[in-house]
Amino acid sequence: MNKVLLICPTSSVEVFSETKIRVAIPLIPYIGLASLGATLLDAGHDVKILEQSVSKDPRGELHSILNEYRPDFVGIGFTSFLSGEAKELAKTVKDFNGNTVVIGGGVHCSVLPEETLRDTDFDVVVIGEGEITLKEIVDRVPLEDIDGIAYKDGKTIKRTKPRELIEDLDSLPVPAWHLYDLKKYHAPRINARRNPVGSIETSRGCPYRCIYCNKSVFGYRFRGKSAKRIVDEMEAMLEVGFKEIHIQDDMFSMDLQRAKATCDEIIRRGLKFPWNIYNGVRCASVDLEFFQKLKRAGCYRVSMGIESGNQEILDRIQKGITIEQIKEAVRLAKEAGVEILTFFLVGLPGETEDTMRQTIEFAKELDCDLNKVAIATPIPGTPMFEEYEKKGLIRTHDWSQYQFHSKSGIAKHENLEYETIRKYYDLFYKELYLRPHFIWKRLVRGISTGDILYDIVYFLRTLKYKW
Q: Helices 131-138 & 31-42, crossing angle to 10 degrees?
């Protein structure tokens, strides 16, 4: 048996600290670490999770757990934006005990494994899905025999062959939620109805080719858990103390019959809890019966990735949906009485001021319950990044700037100055949320649901970020 400490860096939430959506960001236990932890526990290892985003003293807590727990292995999962912080965490661990094996994982490691190892204190990085790979590392299988990693061999960095994707997701153990202290987590009322909120993954992989999206971990092939397994997980989450569940994967409605069967299973078991498809349904993969089943099963909100109100831009980014499909999906959700949160982007490849204006007007036309916009960012590992790199448009490889609400442009746009893109980012929120129609609709909703005071408080908290 080995002792394993899994860490989620502090800034995983702080990335939103100075944005208008900060008041809506939920603190939810990170499902990736819970899934990795469950696999390690099943293999007989001892596991602790340190999620620094909910820590009042991240540095002090890290030193304390290193001193008291003395882990044999430390795993750190991170995105490109968090890579600098992850580097410092790895150094802290190695400074404490040079014999501790420090493992990196997540999307940044999968895209840039050699770079992640070079000039850092990481010993190994996992490329792709982590459960089986991490288990083999902790089992002390010789590194050269483990698929899907890069590692240091003296001063040399070596990379093994890719690991095959996990075919049967039902074979994975239920995430080890007991490794978290649920009392530390809270989601704002604008994003949840009951606390604490837990996240669930019902599928992996997405066959679509949106150019801004990174598929380096789960790949392009859709793999879904069965309806029975999904609801088994939901029941297990309710038993450990979660009061609401958010679906986090990209493609819940990809297999529409599976999605409907999940709703049927929730209803059949008589489970009563609020849930939310937080990461989105695909507008081209829904129908009225689906939304009606969601409503009956307790799902009160779905998210939809719309991105742009201009068809040429949607085609340019290979979104694979049409304006009419978007309108129809929104209409069906409204007919079924399900709330809608929409996601948009400004500054996409090919954008002009006219297309960004069309996006704002389209969002108004759809008239959904909540709307979010981000600045299109060429994240490493995406076709968008590769295109911008080839065109010489990337201004910096300082990964700490690579986030979707950046105040400084990390890449030059082919048509627009960054300040112009930022202007339309701000205009989106101003014009969507300060419309008399939206304010009136939100007041009526707030009175009927009892959320009116929450809405007022959240609005006041955003004033310092300027409207």
A: 50
Which pair of structure tokens corresponds to residue 136? 């083999």
Find the helix packing angle between 418-433 and 353-366, rounded to 10°: 20
The dihedral through the CA atoms of 104, 109, 110, 114 has a sign that is negative
Domain limits for position 325: 187-433
Is 237 found in the same domain as 95? Answer: no
Q: What residues are paired with 275 via a beta bridge?
A: 245, 299
Backbone angles phi, psi at 459, to 5 degrees: -65, -45
| Closest to 338 measured CA to CA, from 370, 315, 310 | 370
* pTM score of the predicted model: 0.92
Residue 101: name the closest of 131, 83, 121, 84 by CA: 121
How many independent structural domains does the chain possess?
Answer: 2
Amino acid sitting at position 236:
A
Which residues have C-beta within 8 Å of that of residue 27, sequence separation ≥ 6? 13, 53, 54, 184, 185, 186, 187
Question: In terms of domains, do 125 and 222 share one?
Answer: no
384 in Cβ contact with 211 (< 8 Å): yes
Cross-strand partners of 375: 346
Confidence (pLDDT) at 12: 54
Same structural domain for residues 223 and 76?
Answer: no
* Alpha carbon distance 456, 460 (integer Å): 6
* Residues 141 and 13 reside in one and the same domain: yes
Q: Are 145 and 197 in a shared domain?
A: no
Please list, in sequence order, all residues whose beta carbon lies within 8 angstroms of the beta carbon of residue 360, skipping any fewer than 6 positions away.
309, 424, 427, 428, 431, 432
- Shared domain for 331 and 422, answered yes or no, is yes
407-436: pLDDT as tens digits? 667 899 999 999 999 999 999 999 999 899
Cβ neighbourhood burial of 395 (10 Å; 0-12, 13-18, 19+)? middle
Q: State the pLDDT at residue 10.
A: 80
